[in-house]
Specification:
Layout: H1 2-23, H2 28-35, H3 48-58, H4 62-74, H5 77-95, E1 101-102, E2 105-109
Antiparallel strand pairs: 1-2
Length: 114
């Protein structure tokens, strides 16, 4: 049941973030270029602990929400765009069952073992 709820939550964030991004008239090329790469996995090149820390930092909603708020407060479209794309990326990951990582192994997540 919890896995389904997290996946539904991810789908909701994915759909809403995508809708809001495009309803503001932002560029679809930038959306695709920034959506797909997961550069925060680079920490795993150092160690499992560093990888998990960096990956988890980048895959919580706090940072993209702060970017969105800053972009709205200061009328900076690039911050709003990045915030939406980042949230959509997290939503997509959660919808597919990729969760926050444990330090033990990349495949151990808060949703399931991959």
């Amino acid at each position: 049941m919890n896995k389904k709820l997290i996946r539904i939550e991810g789908l909701t964030v994915l759909a809403l973030g995508t809708y809001l991004y495009f309803s503001n008239g932002y560029n679809w090329v930038i959306f695709l270029l920034l959506l797909l790469p997961d550069v925060f996995m680079i920490g795993y090149a150092v160690s499992k602990k560093t990888g998990a820390y960096l990956y988890n930092f980048a895959h919580t909603f706090v940072t993209p929400l702060l970017l969105l708020l800053a972009g709205l407060a200061f009328s900076v479209d690039s911050l709003i765009m990045i915030g939406f794309i980042w949230m959509v990326h997290i939503g997509m990951d959660r919808m597919m069952g990729y969760g926050l990582k444990y330090e033990t192994d990349f495949k151990n997540t808060h949703i399931q073992r991959l």
